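A reminder from the course coordinator: this example appears on the midterm review sheet, so study it carefully.

Given structure:
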């Protein structure tokens, strides 16, 4: 069954107005929103606590891995920037217009 978007928006607007007046009960919280919030909080806590239980060797290895990742990204960005610059220069060289001898002899 097809329901036009304008009808859905109208119903939502009307229901929100009735909720503000206390005629309709409050809308229950969306479980997906609660799940997303809990997931984000768990990710933040894991990032904050990821270094606490590591010894010095593990910390040094992690530092080396992060340095390698950073250098790889830096090289990739430089290569991409260099390639885009070369393409822009090639495009600029190849976009000339052709003129006849009668125009440039004036």
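Designed residues:
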């Amino acid at each position: 069954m097809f329901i036009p978007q304008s009808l859905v928006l109208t119903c939502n607007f009307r229901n929100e107005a009735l909720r503000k007046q206390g005629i309709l009960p409050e809308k229950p919280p969306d479980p997906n929103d609660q799940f997303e919030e809990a997931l984000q909080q768990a990710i933040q806590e894991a990032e904050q606590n990821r270094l606490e239980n590591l010894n010095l060797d593990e910390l040094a290895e992690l530092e080396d891995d992060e340095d390698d990742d950073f250098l790889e990204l830096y090289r990739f960005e430089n290569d991409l920037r260099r390639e885009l610059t070369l393409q822009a220069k090639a495009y600029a060289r190849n976009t000339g217009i052709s003129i006849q001898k009668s125009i440039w002899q004036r």
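The chain has two domains: 1-50, 54-92. The two ends are 73 Å apart (CA to CA).
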